[in-house]
Amino acid sequence: MRVQNVDYGVLSPAWAGSQTAALCSDAAFCQAMLEVERAWCHVLAEEGLIPTDHLAAIAAAAKVELYDLGKIAADAVGGGNPLIPLLKAYRDKVAEANPAAAASIHIGATSQDIIDTALMLVISRAGSAVLTTVKAAAVALITLAHEHRDTPMVARSLTQHSLPATFGWRVSHWLQALAQAGQHLEETLKQTALQWGGAAGTRASLQDFLVRSGSTSSTDELAAKLADRLGLQNPLPWQANRIPILNQANVFAQLAAACGKIANDVLISVRSENGELGEPLAEGRGVSSAMPHKQNPVLSVLIKNGALAAPQLLAQVYTGAVANVEERADGGWHTEWEALRGLIRTTGAAVEKTHELVSGLRVFPEWMADNLARHGELLATERMVAHLAPRLEESGHVGIGQGKKQLQELISRSLTDSTPLKPLLLAELPAGLITEEELTNLLDPSAYAGDATKIVDDLTSTYTDWSHT
Amino acid sequence: MRVQNVDYGVLSPAWAGSQTAALCSDAAFCQAMLEVERAWCHVLAEEGLIPTDHLAAIAAAAKVELYDLGKIAADAVGGGNPLIPLLKAYRDKVAEANPAAAASIHIGATSQDIIDTALMLVISRAGSAVLTTVKAAAVALITLAHEHRDTPMVARSLTQHSLPATFGWRVSHWLQALAQAGQHLEETLKQTALQWGGAAGTRASLQDFLVRSGSTSSTDELAAKLADRLGLQNPLPWQANRIPILNQANVFAQLAAACGKIANDVLISVRSENGELGEPLAEGRGVSSAMPHKQNPVLSVLIKNGALAAPQLLAQVYTGAVANVEERADGGWHTEWEALRGLIRTTGAAVEKTHELVSGLRVFPEWMADNLARHGELLATERMVAHLAPRLEESGHVGIGQGKKQLQELISRSLTDSTPLKPLLLAELPAGLITEEELTNLLDPSAYAGDATKIVDDLTSTYTDWSHT
Amino acid sequence: MRVQNVDYGVLSPAWAGSQTAALCSDAAFCQAMLEVERAWCHVLAEEGLIPTDHLAAIAAAAKVELYDLGKIAADAVGGGNPLIPLLKAYRDKVAEANPAAAASIHIGATSQDIIDTALMLVISRAGSAVLTTVKAAAVALITLAHEHRDTPMVARSLTQHSLPATFGWRVSHWLQALAQAGQHLEETLKQTALQWGGAAGTRASLQDFLVRSGSTSSTDELAAKLADRLGLQNPLPWQANRIPILNQANVFAQLAAACGKIANDVLISVRSENGELGEPLAEGRGVSSAMPHKQNPVLSVLIKNGALAAPQLLAQVYTGAVANVEERADGGWHTEWEALRGLIRTTGAAVEKTHELVSGLRVFPEWMADNLARHGELLATERMVAHLAPRLEESGHVGIGQGKKQLQELISRSLTDSTPLKPLLLAELPAGLITEEELTNLLDPSAYAGDATKIVDDLTSTYTDWSHT
Amino acid sequence: MRVQNVDYGVLSPAWAGSQTAALCSDAAFCQAMLEVERAWCHVLAEEGLIPTDHLAAIAAAAKVELYDLGKIAADAVGGGNPLIPLLKAYRDKVAEANPAAAASIHIGATSQDIIDTALMLVISRAGSAVLTTVKAAAVALITLAHEHRDTPMVARSLTQHSLPATFGWRVSHWLQALAQAGQHLEETLKQTALQWGGAAGTRASLQDFLVRSGSTSSTDELAAKLADRLGLQNPLPWQANRIPILNQANVFAQLAAACGKIANDVLISVRSENGELGEPLAEGRGVSSAMPHKQNPVLSVLIKNGALAAPQLLAQVYTGAVANVEERADGGWHTEWEALRGLIRTTGAAVEKTHELVSGLRVFPEWMADNLARHGELLATERMVAHLAPRLEESGHVGIGQGKKQLQELISRSLTDSTPLKPLLLAELPAGLITEEELTNLLDPSAYAGDATKIVDDLTSTYTDWSHT
């Protein structure tokens, strides 16, 4: 077995083996570059600007598996970009089949046109697959939210129990974040765009070629045909404007954050002491032969890993763009490539894992109930105080504004003395202020989930149609 | 003069003294928190849920200048957020005027509601001002692009002269980037949103309050009225979903990158050796008494400073969001605040400086012409080769595919021997292949700017209407 | 109360009100700049190069409280750095008292000398205070580790229970990380360095001044005296070399990471379901009147906040340095300032909070014991298998290499059927393979903590002397 | 040709094909993991704890080329780390040759021991090679600095000409930064450390194994032997303390910044308008067939690319460490790997390119002289004012403190009216104040380079010995 000086993803289980990794691999990117070159030849041939019989050789050679990508990568150092050696190899391959056809390739184009456009193709393809997975995950989340719409669970704030809610309610917020990020992705994918400007971005060479060829087409018209053929938008040349790249990058980082939140929640919930959730079981995943009681939450661990990496990958893309200067940057542009691919790859893989995670999440309502019961009636003291403080004041037992204070002192005494709160209140509050039954109801956490289930209904219905498109 | 333990911006000339800094200062943020509290009281009073005569005291106390922000900041450490001490101080202030009114404040709300909503208000206000400045800068850029639509200038790629273009063409790309980022800002500003969920986000306390009060309004209806009053959108509660914050943050970093590109270009152009541009002169700016020949490009230096800082500030916001967990994060949420404000402040100030920069940019066409002439006819050899290589091949003087090679050897000889290219070509090319006049035209850089001026027209017209709205 | 356009730290409870914030405030930095200017005058006066009677006015004016820092900050925009307006104000103040003395200030110096040196002074002063706090925290950790050297606690890996250990053992690793980072700080603080090079870094102006003055001292000798007076090292000028700044910045980010780890552990342990730790109680900290059962771990939340922010602040300093160019960078240098101060401030405050946290941490051994017991004898199956697998194979009951597999099947059956493991093993294993007593011992988690207590002893003794210096 | 879903570096010319990339490739890392496993078996065999005749099979299988790294990477997802599938494959391979030997592998160890230790081995090996290259680059810089010790060149500040200096002086600051970062690397490489703690870090399994085996060795003694065999330090287990990793990461980012500064300077200097430097020429590098006048500074472009990426890679390592929790983090640890390797790889490749760059840099003293002459005598007005202002005041022609102002007005008039400064001064200054010869000398830039050449001598001698070790 030949060991190449390449990355297999050994250090990156966050994305190794993922579908997204394949869709934005070096091979996928080189294939995209070849497709841009080939599509341009088709446009020119359709216009009668190059001989149609060149196309057979041009198309036949536009297959990435024909090229030694290790050599392309190493040779890219000479000119600072991979298109230069790939184009040379492509021309040589075409010339083998049809020597004249080699001259029909790359007319009026420049490295940046091919690289930026190929990056956009990769974004479009990998992004579309990611979007499909986001929607599938959203569907799973909607199902999960509905199923546990009424499953009682305590909400937590700053690690502490705050108020009663339901598990479906928490899930509906997972959905809200993931779907919002997914909708942002959907919007930006519609803006993946051709870059076509020639050496400096002025289309001088192309225009001159059209004049020489006696063509009546404009450079714009040809660019529009190329964009159409590639399934991309056709804005004016943007080689010196990196906003289109930044705008695409952003949404992936948003998705990573949405997935990371879900993983964070799962990672708390699978702890032995919490026990509310379990990751889906899969053969060979997360088990430890030495420690049979362990069920490592590997999906969540790797999703979290991806989410932690994403902000810096985004910042790397931005830092590259910030170093943009003149008509082609002296290092900034180059910095965008690896980081952008890294961001898409890491995020897409996190989305895939999130889909698997939420589709098979094991939910343990009894643990949720047990945990919710830990602080018992204390969870609803907010309500009790809201009800009784005004009565205390109105009844004249305490001064205006003193009701709340008085009740809090009783709560504190209950906590300090480990005295149950209800009997204490019944004993200490003025007779007739409240009946025992009323107090029992007031202190019942399960009746204090507010709009939780309504929010489940509203959030799931908000995203149901979208997630099924 | 009292020296407080505060930041005046001494270490941050990138934003010190800017309009944006004022719009997102600690005072502006605290004012926004007070306004959220006050507006909520107005909503409740309109609904008859609190006494209308409480509003006078409530409104009178909602003025940030009444509070010791240094103390608020220090006391925020106790509960981990600034709303807690500010709310206490606010209640005390209200109680001084009307003791009963203090109980009408913050009903059903939680710290996160106020803080997230106030952040959105700050984004909305500072962002709107930034957008206005972006548009003003765009107008200035359109004017500049028109003025120099035909001013010849060499385009540069990887620091090197590439092809002829015009200065207006370069400016039109500045415009393209800034306007695109500005349009993204405009879109996201429409999505600034109220967060209103109560302690855990379930609206339990508010719902209970409505029941107690015998109100027929729903929590949603009240939230909608509050959002309307604050000029914000009214989505479902999103306390556990940080995508709305990330989405706002993104666009500021895009703007910073767009400004940074302009500054980078200016910083090259104001060099003594380049000389193509000068920053607008202003009393006391950029001068050095020790070195009178220096005219430091201070605007661009500080814009670049801001642009360099922005990616990390964005990554900081994202990292906070990635640490989001459960219903209120244990540190992640808190990490968003300072970074988000820092990002808005730095970016807004960069936009202000960019506006000033491009509005008064001094352009030196004669330096542009001199620099363009440095490589003379070499700039157009791409075109010459494109024209002559096929003729050479068709004429049978060289084999198929050899024309380009032959011409490049002549160009190389011209470079190596410092021989002028035109006479060399005339001497070495087969007689009759080309006339001297034709060759002169082919090698004339000024006639090889492609679509440059058309791109100026197209880009400026694309953004003209928008920038004037 | 005047509301200035300044930061009080309202958005930054991670550092607001901290000692470190005061030590690296705008005022502290401006004071440091004034001290550098003053100290240089003292050096020159000692050399007889300026009149000694100028020093009174020069020293009297070198007090930051005499200056309007808001104005300094705003005016810094004109020249791009704060020294320019401060120096002007300083000269004016000196001239008020002694007109001739103003000319004795800043001789041969440049803005960068003062700013870089003042930053180093701030690093030195704030850093020294931070180091003192680190050592105090280390002392507290040693005490805590000793106290809980033998307190049983389960170790966790990937959120799951792994093997038995002790709480003191975990604490000893907190110590290890914090002390290592502290030792790195101690080393780098010894390298805080004067920058003294004059306008371009060549010391031309100073050298010329010495010649004019007929001085026999070298520029090096004077710089050495200045460094000595300021308590800094005196390397050759390094204005164009930012490694000294990066090297200082690094150690703060390390400290933040060490503190963040402690906070992360505490934030898991204070959860209601875990219960192993409690933050130190303090009046008004972390309590919620609405939710009396909550005890928000505010110290840890804010430490985590600081730790999350630190990597990006470090990256911001680095990004500034990466943009370094020629003899003074056009924006890169400026980017270092705010980020460096932010990093020191955030980190120092995190260290302060960590000190408070570990000094008063409430430890609940009974919760630790309960949690440890959750998986009971399963925690020690690794040992049981290690002991019995070879016996099974040697006894011929299973083939070579099959012992482990056989035992794991029994463990799995125990888990699946919820059958206690020990009786199952006794029933299923070949008679005579092991006695019940022996098996009980093998499965006792409390006897399987390995070197845990030895590691406590070794780690605490490693850092005891250092932490008391 | 099989196209695998792997990275060849097509998107990363910053490091593709570099020596460092090979030294920290997936293969190199997997080889390091195998070596750790093998070395541990050797230690155990030497102690008589496993049969010596197992070693042949164990050593024979410890060759990375025997394994399918693509499969290892994909399978790593199951357990969240690559050691698990590699260990399984390793055991299978050993068992093929010697079934009993498989049980002798990995005794008492855990994934983290192998992964952390293998990372340290990779750091040690790649880092040592990088250090060698740093020293070679330092030697080249010393030569370059000596050669151009006296080559006049203008120093620049904020893009503007500041004062005269020499090119060797600038180079000596390149050296200063690179050598300081290199010395930091040298120091930290001495601290690359074994991690050896077993499943939770308590060494329980190993200790139990020693007891069972009747060994009298301590776990410490065995760890020390392993560390010694691997050429690493042997601290106490540090699995829960990431400072050792952060400390290694830091120095690479410092090196990247030092290289980036050099590249930035070159990228300015190779511009057509500046012309002071040229990159070393190499066959096929940096040339453009379409634009023959271009000589793209590809080395510097790719060094800058690497330098721009490094801060975010460092921040990614730190962010991973900040997410550290308990005894093995749930995603934070995993985030360190890819980023750390990325940082080493990017930096090492930048150092290699910097070595090549500075070893063959083409220097054009005549362009330096031309550029220096652009502002002529204005460059030395600082000195002129310093000399003449006191004379003017002492002579009574102007009041105290007015001399400088008067002279600056004359300079301004010279600039405004484009009047040569010297005749203007001679005409306007009081007769007898200065002779023409004296004034000529005062305004001669070439005599105003201060300590520039002395600094060259001092800096080069400071690092000469070190760079030759």
TrEMBL record, chains A, B, C, D:
MF annotations from Gene Ontology: lyase activity
Keywords: Lyase
Domain (Fumarate lyase N-terminal) ranges: 11-304
Superkingdom as given in the UniProt entry: Bacteria
Annotated InterPro entries: Fumarase/histidase_N, Fumarate_lyase_fam, Fumarate_lyase_N, L-Aspartase-like
Protein's UniProt keywords contain Translocase: no
SUPFAM superfamilies reported for this sequence: L-aspartase-like (SSF48557)
Pfam families: Lyase_1
UniProt record similarity statement: Belongs to the class-II fumarase/aspartase family.
Record protein name field: Lyase family protein
Species per Swiss-Prot/TrEMBL record: Micrococcoides hystricis
